[in-house]
Amino acid sequence: MLNRKVVWVSLGLGVGVAAVGGVLYALTRDEWGWTEGDGDDEAQGGARSCPVHLTVRIEAEHAGLVIGRRGETIQQIQRKTNTKIFFKDEEATETHRVIGIRGQRTDAHLAEILIHQLIANQPQLETVVVEVPNEWVGRIIGRGGETIRSLQTQSRCKIDVERGGGVPQGTKRITLRGTSEQVDRAQVLITEQLDEAASLRARVKIAQDSRRPRTFAPKANQTPHLFLTSENGVDSETSHLFRPKESEKTETLVQSAGDKVMAVYVSSIADPGFFYVQKVGPRSIDLDKLVDEMTAFYEVAANRESNQVKTAETGDLVAAQFEADGRWYRAKVVKVIPDEYDESQISLDLDYVDFGDCIQKSISEVYNLRTTFLKLNFQAIQCSLARIEPGQRKEDGSLVSASCWSPEASDDFERLTRCAQWKEVLAEIVDYKTVQSQLVPWVQLVDTSGDEDLNIGDEMVRLGHARYIDQ
């Protein structure tokens, strides 16, 4: 998973004073007329104290070392040698910087020697480039760069991630720069992150394989586990209706710098312009656990009896069974439908907040939610397919705009996305758009399960169901 590919080493300039001979410098006459003294010091009448101006040429990458944090290093050398040290920016090149030193002759030479020693004695630096699969890069970067900053702090190694989206199944180069020990430590930390990501992916795969498609009926021999109840047979925790203002927290689809594409399940669709996805990852495992717990709880008759809903309002959150698989899920009341002939008979239009599909049930078939069933954010995220609009094929083969998506388009979109079959597709946020007065992600979906990646929007155009918006 972690491929160490390129290594090069930038060596120091030598050790100690011997490095002085390896650096070019010049003794020059400065604008003040200071010169280096000639002959015996005493014959010159104290020429050893004659002011001089030295110029020292160093590699540009060493400039920061000489300056030090907030200029502390260069100031320390100046104090020790009683000299003035400054950079000649007008003589700088892309690869080298020029340092000017002013002071008495002996002091200036000492300052020069200290600069060379500082450079020569710095630890040898390595630059190592490793390649990481694109799907794992987001794990290295973390939300808002939090993880990569932590890795740099722990290893004291500079870590740079290659920019650019890249292809979903490709790799990105991560450059590590530091001493040998720092680079080795950074590689260990990165490997640990990738191992954790691989372990999570394995758990997600197990959960994915265990999910039944929501269009299949439950097997007859499946018996739900009983939920532990209190001594009187009724769960002791308070359950009641919740209003969205108090409890509604929907998961969001937001890509980070390292996550240009995200793995999702398409859980429910109306048409290509209005569908729901769930993010693949730890939350999908948490959701499966929540559904197991709810199913176990509401399969107990005593628990249902103690949590029967008597009245309901639009926006209430309830527990409702999904007949297609016999399991229990969280749902929101979107409409209350009274019976004009019998006021005691009330129907409710429900949206399953973790999957996006909807159903109508009698009020006698829904139940109050326990508080613990609200700790997980709602997982269904509304999206719209990017860069295409409804289209229809004319007799001459051209595509023209249509007023709405055809039933055939929705059927093919459901097939291409393998809706509610819990098969991953990759989503990339292109923009955000307003759908039914709500700002939702405008995404491209790509199926990578075949020999070649399939862009589902492009396939909808090829099938004659859609046309590109910029046509």
Short characterization:
By secondary structure, the chain is of the alpha+beta class.
Keywords for this entry:
471 residues, 5-stranded antiparallel beta sheet, Ribosomal Protein S8, Chain: A, domain 1, 11 helices, elongated, 24 strands, single chain, alpha+beta, 5-stranded mixed β-barrel
How would you characterize this protein structure?
By secondary structure, the chain is an alpha+beta fold. Among the domains are: 3-120, 2-Layer Sandwich (Ribosomal Protein S8, Chain: A, domain 1); 125-210, Ribosomal Protein S8, Chain: A, domain 1 (2-Layer Sandwich), CATH 3.30.1370. It contains 11 helices and 24 strands. It has helices at 63-67, 72-81, 105-120, 134-141, 146-155, 180-210, 244-247, 282-298, 301-306, 407-417, 456-462, and strands at residues 3-10, 25-28, 51-59, 84-87, 96-104, 125-133, 158-161, 171-178, 239-240, 262-271, 274-279, 317-322, 327-338, 346-352, 358-362, 366-367, 369-370, 381-385, 388-393, 399-401, 425-435, 438-447, 454-455, 466-468. A 5-stranded mixed beta barrel has the order 10-11-18-22-21. Helix 5 (146-155) runs antiparallel to helix 6 (180-210). The radius of gyration is 34 Å and the shape is elongated. The protein starts with a strand and ends with a strand. Mean pLDDT is 80; it is low at 5-45 and 216-240.
Please list the strands of the largest sheet in the order they lie side by side: 10-11-18-22-21
CATH fold descriptor of the domain at 3-120: Ribosomal Protein S8, Chain: A, domain 1
In CATH's first tier, which class of the domain at 3-120 applies? Alpha Beta
* Distance between the first and last residues' Cα: 42 Å
Radius of gyration: 34 Å
Name given to the CATH homologous superfamily of the domain at 3-120: K Homology domain, type 1
What's the total count of β strands? Answer: 24
Helix content: 25-40%
Class by alpha and beta content: alpha+beta
Oligomer: single chain
Largest sheet: 5 strands, mixed, barrel
User: What would CATH call the architecture of the domain at 3-120?
Assistant: 2-Layer Sandwich
Q: Unreliable stretches, pLDDT < 50, 5 or more residues? A: 5-45, 216-240
